[in-house]
Amino acid sequence: MKIRIRFVRAAGITVAVVGLLGLSLPGVASASSALFPREGEPLHCAFQTINGHYLTAVGGGGRTTDVLHTDATSIGSWEFFTPVVVPDGPPGSLVHVGLMTIDGHYLTAVDGGGRNTDVIHSNATNLLGWEEFTLIGFGSSNYAIQTIDGHYLTAVNGGGQANDAIHSDATRIAAWEMFHTTCIGD
After folding, report:
1. Residues 68, 79: contact at Cβ < 8 Å?
2. Which pTM does this prediction carry?
3. What CATH code is carried by the domain that includes residue 165?
């Protein structure tokens, strides 16, 4: 299994570029060639919390309650998300992605973010505003996940939670807002 990930510098912030489109930014390989090593095979990413646990889409997605856990200690199918580029903004702008669960649904930041209860749903079938996230890179595959309203996802207590696992009300990036990302594509 080969691990791949590509980065791009946009607006002074490193952003993960992923998706289905052939994005073209100066000096950066296109998303289609970098992230689709074989035709039709997308990149799948697991997000590890600061204390070593993994973000899990409970049941593989399709839920509005008991949606995400952060207590997995290894990567299984429910821990993989497929980043899908949202075609918005001019070249060189921040890249927004949808995070698709293994069952084909998208994560939704309820109300666009800013919540500590009823935070995330995983039953969306279309990429709309609340399904858009920005992956902000901090070298060595570490990312903060920003909601469309500018808040950040937080792994409560650094991870290891089955209940009250994720909040979306952080206004700055600290340790609990950082996720180590492992991506596979072939």
Report:
1. no
2. 0.78
3. 2.80.10.50
End-to-end CA distance of the chain: 6
Structure tokens given for 125: 């079938």
Total number of domains constituting the chain? 1
Domain ranges, residue 53: 17-128+149-184
Residue 4 lies in a domain: no
pLDDT tens, N- to C-terminus, the chain (186 residues): 333 333 222 222 223 333 222 333 222 223 333 333 344 567 899 999 999 999 999 999 999 999 999 999 999 999 999 999 887 766 666 788 999 999 999 999 999 999 999 999 999 999 999 999 999 998 879 999 999 999 999 999 999 999 999 999 999 999 999 999 999 974
Whether residue 59 is contained in a domain is answered as yes
Hey, is 96 helix, strand or coil? Answer: strand
